[in-house]
Design goal:
Layout lengths: L25 H19 L4 E2 L2 E2 L1 E4 L4 E4 L2 E3 L4 H22 L2 H5 L2 H17 L2 H9 L4 H26 L5 H9 L5 H21 L1 H7 L2 H4 L10 E4 L1 H4 L11 H4 L9 H4 L20 H13 L6 E4 L1 H6 L3 H8 L2 H23 L3 E7 L6 E2 L5 E11 L5 E8 L5 E4 L3 E4 L4 E10 L1 H7 L2 E12 L12 E10 L2
Antiparallel strand pairs: 1-2, 3-4, 4-5, 6-7, 8-10, 9-10, 10-14, 11-13, 11-15, 12-14, 15-16
Helix pairs in contact: 1-4, 2-17, 4-6, 4-8, 6-8
């Protein structure tokens, strides 16, 4: 008696390669407009000069972010938090209104995939030519086309990595070091890291990132409802599908408007069939709308077989005006209200923030000591940070304990634009006041007043900052 038949079951099923076809139309125009806008901003911003320095520089060595006139220090982390909140609610708001607009038009994965596909089409041809080339055996022609494509991909990728690192190190210095082959090890590592990440994601992974690696594809359903504008196929008008002559009369052939040409599938960057309904793989690029409208024009049918519509609108056959009115529903208004409030608070906070910052650290080497004539001295280290693009003067004072004074430094401290400096500060309390105060730790605070750098102490826009600390009287 023979034993049971053994079968090998593969737990991994490779997917067919997606060959998106080129498409032209209204939405393709806006997609490429955003490609140009985002890349001109990304590649051009590091080269822009502002007040004699790089306009946007995240200077990790100096622990400061320079964004035009705005200078941020680690103590300004709250602004990064607010920016993340704005980004999150912006994503919620636009997704609730019209689905994955970010994914389809501005996501770096989409943008660089579009750029890499453009290079691929110009070196290997459009969809059918690329498919034939991949099936053909290796030849000098195929080797030349593949080499040209990958060389262009690598050039774009490495320039992207170089530009990214240029946001964290002055890009002109980085460029000079690169020309002289004098880049440091970490610079080379990060340029190659981000360059190869771009090369791999946009050149090879492509739709796999959107379908399997991006979490947005998974939780978008929590932000969509039946009144969200999504890319929809009008099954009532389109079915039953089937090929036909351009001269055929729909009323006599018993078919819908869909000619079953598969063009909506051929242009989809993730390779889905939008006629099957809403799918998490759809990135909302609207390429299928453009190509379907083109097919409808050729057959003389009305446009809009595939269009932006809501599920309720499709079900109840509502017009565009009624669907847009339903877009302004409570969820959207709440997201929009929170987004507006947080954005306004962020702008207001940046507008009124102090142009300088101070950190106070006690000197751990000598917490308290007696000097001549029984005077008690405490030593502190103050980090003064000039968050302005102009030279500023500062005067230090102390309050909260009678008789306590600043022994050093005296007079005005001057900081250059965007300078941060540690200053050792000595506070002294006369012996008589120290006896009255008694041993122990006593609260007090530093007063740091901004004055004009060239004028007398106390002149000018005297904005004042207070920092709490303590003064210790030994036993």
């Amino acid at each position: 008696m023979s034993g049971p038949e053994l079968k090998t079951i593969s737990l991994y099923a490779s997917e067919a390669k997606v060959y998106p076809r080129a498409v032209h139309g209204w939405f393709a125009f806006w997609r490429w407009a955003l490609v140009w806008a985002t890349q001109l901003l990304f590649y051009g911003l590091p080269w822009l000069s502002w007040n004699g320095r790089q306009a946007v520089l995240f200077d990790l060595d100096a622990r400061r972010f320079l964004i035009f006139d705005l200078i941020l220090y680690p103590q300004d982390f709250i602004y990064l938090t607010a920016l993340l909140v704005v980004s999150a609610f912006g994503l919620f708001f636009f997704t609730a209104v019209a689905g994955r607009l970010w994914c389809g038009y501005a996501c770096p994965q989409t943008v660089y995939t579009e750029i890499f596909l453009w290079i691929e089409r110009h070196t290997e041809g459009d969809r059918a030519a690329r498919m034939r080339l991949d099936k053909a055996g290796w030849s000098l022609g195929k080797l030349g086309r593949k080499t040209a494509k990958h060389a262009a991909w690598l050039a774009v990728s490495l320039w992207t990595g170089f530009t990214f690192v240029g946001y964290f190190e002055p890009i002109r210095v980085l460029g000079e070091n690169a020309m002289q082959a004098a880049l440091g090890g970490w610079e080379v590592f990060w340029i190659l890291f981000y360059g190869l990440a771009t090369y791999g994601n946009a050149g090879y992974l492509r739709e796999q990132v959107c379908k399997y690696m991006c979490p947005y594809a998974r939780f978008q359903s929590a932000m969509l409802d039946r009144d969200t504008l999504i890319i929809s196929y009008d099954a009532v008008r389109g079915d039953p599908r089937g090929p036909r002559s351009k001269k055929a009369d729909l009323s006599t052939i018993g078919l819908g408007a869909c000619v079953d040409c598969q063009q909506c599938v051929h242009v989809c960057p993730t390779g889905i069939d939008i006629r099957k309904g809403l799918q998490h793989e759809c990135i909302g690029c609207a390429a299928c709308i453009d190509v379907c409208n083109d097919v409808m024009d050729k057959f003389g049918y009305p446009r809009g077989l595939i269009r932006y519509a809501t599920q309720n609108g499709m079900q109840h056959r509502w017009g565009a005006a009624r669907q847009w009115r339903r877009v302004l529903r409570p969820r959207v208004l709440i997201y929009g209200g929170i987004l507006l409030a947080v954005s306004a608070a962020l702008v207001w906070s940046l507008a009124v923030r102090m142009p300088f910052k101070v950190d106070v650290v006690r000197d751990r080497a000598a917490l308290a000591r007696e000097v001549e004539d029984g005077v008690v001295e405490n030593v502190y280290r103050l980090q003064l940070m000039n968050a302005a693009e102009s030279t500023q003067g500062f005067v230090l004072d102390v309050e909260g304990i009678p008789g306590l004074r600043v022994a050093a430094p005296t007079g005005r401290l001057t900081l250059a634009p965007a300078e941060a400096r540690w200053v050792t500060v000595s506070l002294r309390l006369p012996a008589e006041q120290a006896r009255r105060l008694g041993p122990g730790v006593h609260p007090m605070r530093f007063s740091i007043r901004r004055v004009e750098a060239g004028g007398p102490s106390g002149a000018g826009d005297a904005r004042e900052l207070f920092e709490k600390s303590t003064f210790m009287v030994p036993r």
